[in-house]
Task: inverse folding
């Protein structure tokens, strides 16, 4: 039971960290996008921003999945 409880706490902690990370990562992009919309290259920059955000999200998801799998395996052992 104790192991199960800590596992739940860990996943909550991970979710919180992801939320913070998203805020930290996306806020500069949002301001950056607003700033660059005044320029003629806004379309190119928007595409780059979208690609970067997608890559970051994919990396975060992969890391979270790996961490969860490791936690589950360690808890099982």
Result:
């Amino acid at each position: 039971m104790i192991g199960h409880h800590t596992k739940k706490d860990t996943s909550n902690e991970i979710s919180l960290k992801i939320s913070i990370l998203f805020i930290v990562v996306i806020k500069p992009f949002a301001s950056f996008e607003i700033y660059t919309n005044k320029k003629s290259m806004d379309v190119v920059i928007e595409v780059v921003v979208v690609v970067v955000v997608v890559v970051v999200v994919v990396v975060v998801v992969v890391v979270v999945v790996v961490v969860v799998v490791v936690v589950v395996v360690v808890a099982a052992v």
